[in-house]
Amino acid sequence: MSSARSITAAVNPPRAVYLDYPLGHTAGKPLDTDNQMAVLQDTLQALANIQAPGTIVDLTYEWRTDDVWKDSVMRPKPAQSEHNADSNDDANAHEDDRVERFDTPQYQNEADADAAMGPCTTCVFLEESA
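Structure (tokenized):
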């Protein structure tokens, strides 16, 4: 699954699915379980049906009805600088307007957190050696 088509094409995976959503939202829109399930079902269907190596299937979901969201994602805002407006330092400076990053996992809701912290029913654990 990818939200960066050019990068995905460059690495030439055996098969891939591209979704034109912002990076970090490849599995669907936050808190929109219907969208997430549809994206995941279509992804699994596409990956199962791809016959030719290197194929990238484009999913047709839209993040918004317009592409305005891409303006802030693809073109960072110039940072405010205390330097002279004519300074060359400002030419390459950009404001970091990403959401806050955390050292611990973040979940959409408490049920997701509980599921992640509970016992893993699919993991295989080796007995500790004595």
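The longest strand covers residues 15-18. The beta strands are 15-18, 55-58.
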